[in-house]
Specification:
The longest helix is centred in the N-terminal third of the chain and has 29 residues. By secondary structure, the chain is mainly α. The protein starts with a helix and ends with a helix. The protein contains 2 helices and no strands. It has one domain. 7% of the residues are buried.
Length: 88
């Protein structure tokens, strides 16, 4: 077997290793996503709580439908990292 062929084999093997590592990192990042905050007193829950907790809602009639618990901002960072990781 030529040295060039062994070099190509090594490169292909390394590429596959890196793809598996990327997939593990994507999975770990996905697990770091946050849900919108649900409080026992629903008046203090995030206005978007119903997106993550079926049947729940914020009862604060003065709250608009913007996230106020930080989940949207946190998840946007994760989404950007996942986007950056890309696919094959």
């Amino acid at each position: 077997m030529s040295d060039e062929y062994r070099g190509i084999d090594w490169c292909n093997h390394r590429i596959e290793e890196l793809k598996r590592e990327r997939d593990r990192l994507r999975e770990a990042l996905g697990k770091l996503r946050r849900k919108h905050h649900m409080c026992e007193d629903s008046y203090y829950s995030c206005p978007k709580v119903g997106l993550d907790h079926e049947g729940e809602s914020c009862t604060n009639e003065y709250a608009d439908y913007e996230c106020d618990c930080g989940a949207d901002e946190h998840n946007a960072i994760i989404d950007a990292a996942l986007q950056e990781a890309g696919d094959d």
